[in-house]
Amino acid sequence: MHGELRVDVCVVGGGYTGISAALELAKAGRTVALLEAEQLGWGCSGRNGGQINPGLAADQSVLEKQLGQDHAQALWRLSLEGVALLRSRVAEYAIDCDLKQGILLVANKPRHVPELQAWQARLEGLGYDQLTFHDRPALQDLLKADYQAGVMDWGGGDLHPLKYLHGLARAAEQHGARLYERSAVLDYQQSATGVRVRTAQGRVSAEHLLLAGNAYMGHLLPWQQRRFMPIGSYIGATAPLGELAEQLIPSRAAVCDMNTLIDYYRLSADGRLLFGGRASARAARPEALRQTMLERMTQVFPALAQTDFEYLWGGQVAMTANKAPHLGRLGKRVLFAQGYSGQGVALSGLAGKLMAEALMERQQGFDLFARVRHWPVPPGVPLQTAIRALALLWYRLRDAR
Known about the structure:
The chain is an alpha/beta fold. The chain folds into two domains: about 5-45 and about 165-225 and about 320-370, FAD/NAD(P)-binding domain (3-Layer(bba) Sandwich); about 100-160 and about 230-315, D-Amino Acid Oxidase, Chain A, domain 2. About 35% of the residues lie in helices and about 25% in strands. It contains twelve helices and 17 strands. It has helices at about 15-25, 45, 60-65, 70-90, 110-125, 135-140, 160-175, 245-250, 290-300, 345-360, 365-370, 380-400, and strands at about 5-10, 30-35, 50, 100-105, 130-135, 150-160, 180, 185-190, 195-200, 200-210, 230-240, 255, 265, 275-280, 310-320, 325-330, 335-340. Strand 8 and strand 9 (about 195-200) form a beta hairpin. Helix 1 (about 15-25) runs parallel beside helix 7 (about 160-175) and helix 3 crosses helix 4 (about 70-90). It is globular, with a radius of gyration of 21 Å. The mean pLDDT is about 90.
């Protein structure tokens, strides 16, 4: 953006969180300017695996221990609202994003099977009735791969992440939100009367500021408030597989395994296999991980031993220690949301809506998440990188058992 601009709300970040907030605010009649440093969807929102997961990445029992049963269950219900919000927006705005239903959680090892069954029982105890268990033989009808068992979650699914984001952006603009690309925020100042946001070529004056950059927020969020570490995650896409695609995944469901360092994959609308995983402690060139990712894909699907990736990309996922999203305030006029820990396709849209509602005096949902306690992260990139590397080494050893 260029020049001077005055709006009710300034949003920083052109991903699901920021665009969701801009959409809700514009629908309510607020004037909104969204500033994105690169192009819309440049970060996690345009580079994710497209999997829609009901619930939080955080274990429900961990949340219950910290917050109590009622509060933890309220967060669970909010997470389901995030999935419903996604589906309703796709329908309302006719977003062509290849939305499908069903996601499989599969057990890699025999020890995972009782854990999988206990997970299903916990969610069914919360009244969630979208889960079906499949033992090893029955799982073959859904997925031709060597897993011990699986649970199909019909409440989840997958979509084309960038198509969905562009649909949200069009909806926000239709309601009057102004979205600016190539408009990196240099700094901002908060006062009793408002917030002044500075870019290289302009200034925005607003009553409130929403920080929605997640893993790419950078210096705009003080390190004391980050409460997450960025973890590299990478995805490769094969050429269209033709009839082989249906043979490998007859259900066409998205799949995620139960290792700590997960593999996740799905079929695209044109029959490509999109295979993701390979967590990294530091940002690595995706091309450097090609062979490792091909080996992991071949372990799952030996029939693809001679198949290469046509496309390979990666990015940073914001992981909190307890895997719950981190929502909060900086003073009276700045709100932030971050740390979806790999489940941001639905949760980030929900977080944007909750931030918007908090500015419109409907703060209950935002405050429920803001009460979750998060461990601070150490200052400095070298120390953080070393800690991530040690954690990933521990997870690899754990997964090898």
